[in-house]
Amino acid sequence: MKRIHLVGIKGVAMTALAVWYKEAGYMVTGSDVTEEFPTDEVLAQGGITALEFSSKNITNIRPDLVIYTGAHGGKENDEVVEAEALGIPALPHGKALGLIMSDKKQISVAGSHGKTTTSGMIATILSHAGLDPSYAIGCGEIRGLGLSGHKGKKDIFVAEADEYVTDPTHDTTPRFLWQHPDILVVTNIDYDHPDVYASLADVQAAFVKLQKQAKITIVNGDDPASKVLLKNAITYGLSPKTEFRVTNVRFGEERTFFTLSQRGVEIGEFTLKVPGRHNALNAAAAAAACRQLGVQWEDIRKGLRVFGGTKRRFESVGEIGGIRVIDDYAHHPKEIAATLAAAREWFPHRRIIAVFQPHTYSRTKVLMSEFGNAFALAQEVILTDIYSSARETDTLGISGKTLVEETAKHHQNVYFAPDFSAVKKLLYTHMQQGDIIIFMGAGSIYTWAHSMI
């Protein structure tokens, strides 16, 4: 095979895979919608052009393999249909990723929250330790490392392991079950993706299946829902019962400091350029995984110090007039609470304004009360219209205003602004010198922080 075509190439996971294929020597093309995406810059740096969706792309390019995402119709996308009509093999993203990992030592990072940051930390540590791993990580950029995909020279492959289904229209296999990890890291398990999982127990069952495919499992020992994985697992966390224990977490000068010990023996202090206790735990998970590969503690310490975060994870977009603007991918109540806690710890004396765009009607409705409680650490909260998934047609009788009403039960300063234009007007009347404005969400809000600057 020489020509690879990716349908839905602008998705963060697809972009990382495209960059890997490009570095592996393939001719890579792709297609997507025309609107701006966070990955546009990555594709440009990788020398990859995203064409507009059209079945003619397949007839013109005649690729040897088509890879498609679960979005944009999945297997029913016109380009995939055309490929199959021409006898060109077509694979969903999850299966394609599993195949290119299959002959490598696989490090799979799973979890409802934190898998992008943790896999980015592992890739950074291994790269700076001279192990040159391959990796495919669902973000635009890994600061301190480079693009989100890489074809390394060694036999290690680091990848996110996503619990969402392979193709909602045709294949409900959780995407991470196409991986067979030598080392599986699980940061936590939470109830999410209510469009495909009926309950937390269903999510847990998927993780249990993944663990059965893994040789070594590293689990967050503090996470109640991850207890189903604790048998024969290596644990990390804040608890004294965990093998890799984080203590003495503190913050200063936009740095996070923590002490790490293993089986009660102190290893020393570590420094991060990313905020929050949750990131100290992510770093412990990354350290535990790298130790399984024989990486020395000093190399782990250096790698973590170099890691500058990933795109859209507490990304500081700029500061003008004493007002700092931050962009973050948080779209689940626990992620929102963790992001705001991190902001409060790093900026203890500054006012925080949270701007949140809810993502999907199904998630917003099922987790409505949790969302309402998630903004406690912000001084002001601005909520927008709900950004619908391409898979959704039913509003389920809710709107952004419904979430405003729920949040107002717990918070004094909650405002509704349906879109960026309304948000901007509201911010101009409310913001003050010294404020921290955090734009959060998984929808179109990713452009707003830059537009605000």
Can you tell me about this structure?
This protein has helices spanning 12-23, 40-45, 56-61, 78-85, 93-101, 115-128, 200-212, 277-292, 297-306, 333-346, 361-366, 368-373, 400-407, 420-430, 448-452, and strands at 3-7, 27-32, 50-52, 65-68, 90-92, 105-110, 134-142, 146-150, 156-161, 165-167, 171-174, 183-186, 216-220, 234-237, 244-252, 255-262, 265-272, 315-320, 323-328, 352-356, 380-383, 414-416, 436-440. Strands 8-7-9-6-12-13-14-15-16-17 form a ten-stranded mixed beta sheet. The chain starts with a strand and ends with a helix. It has 15 helices and 23 strands. The protein has three domains: 3-92, NAD(P)-binding Rossmann-like Domain (Rossmann fold); 102-306, UDP-N-acetylmuramoyl-L-alanine:D-glutamate ligase; 315-452, Mur ligase, C-terminal domain (Protein-Tyrosine Phosphatase, Chain A, Alpha-Beta Complex). It is 32% helix and 27% strand. With 453 residues, it is an alpha/beta fold. The mean pLDDT is 94. Helix 6 crosses helix 8, helix 6 crosses helix 9 and helix 8 crosses helix 9.
Rg: 21 Å
- Stretches where pLDDT falls below 50 for ≥5 residues? none
Helix content: 25-40%
Question: What is the terminal-to-terminal distance?
Answer: 45 Å
Mean pLDDT: 94
What portion of residues belong to β-strands? 25-35%
Number of domain modules: 3
CATH class of the largest domain: Alpha Beta
Count of alpha and pi helical runs: 15
CATH architecture of the largest domain: 3-Layer(aba) Sandwich
